[in-house]
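PT: before anyone asks, these are the final sequences, not the draft ones from last week. 282 residues across everything. Please model them as a single complex and drop the result in this thread when it's through.
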Amino acid sequence: VELDMPELPEVETIKEALKRSVEGAKVLSVEVRSPHLREQVPTNLPQLSSSAQILRIYRLAKYIIIDLNNGYSFILHLGMSGRIKILESESVSYEKHDHVILHTTKGLVIYNDARRFGLFTIDKTDHLQKNHLFEHLGLDPFDEQLTATYLENHFKQKQTAIKIVLLDQSIINGIGNIYASEALYEARISPLRKSSSLTHTDLEVLINAIRKTLTKAIKAGGSTLKDYRKPDGSMGYFQNQHCVYNKEGQRCPDCTCSEIDGGIKRITQGGRSTFYCGYLQK
DNA sequence: AGTGAGGCCTGAAAGC
DNA sequence: TGCTTTCAGGCCTCAC
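LR: through. Structure below.
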């Protein structure tokens, strides 16, 4: 099993794969081949986790938390290019950018990250709440506390475009650059709208669109993981299911915008690409 | 306080 | 062909 591409749905899918393969396993040893990630991998991480049992694996925003039975938890983040490889037996040779390897009684977990924007660290389980990494996290998209009123309060005096604000992990966590565009398309809301201009109804529509878009992607990830493997052994993933992301100039699935005004548009907001249908999204 | 720009890294793809 | 530039799914810090 091998997966990458880290927004909420991908992290969720990877977390599920980890649960299926190594939850309950015992950590035999940990190899740190390179500690230079977004944060340095703690020197004592191997000694703190060796011979502990993996109790629970869950997702927190775009992080994966692995609780051990000795009072410590691993914290993983995949950054832009992080990948997790799960192998059933010992690997003969490691690949470039394989930074951290967990040897467990149920197989090998390899953390690989070319750009090293991700992290693999450890903290006391009962200290996670206070860990600086989670200090400013907003609500999970599926948290029932995420309501139109919640967003109304946060957007009240925000002049910033809604697309940029969707990437702000301190309001809603888990949405990245792909699903920000996809959710706004699903909601038929222009990425250029000022956040404060969204009505209560717009926000209800947007929340539903976010959940629908993420749910669809998680389901696709799950089925992909189970059913589809590219010839080189890596996982194929969901590439043709995006409606607008990376589809500049093409016709969006729900209208004839390509004939009316040149199809899906690509613009830059906050230094990052946004894709939308100028005809459907208002 | 809120906002925008820049930086961290490597590699793939596009441009010349 | 090979060299240079641009761009990439995230997040943090710093200057205004």
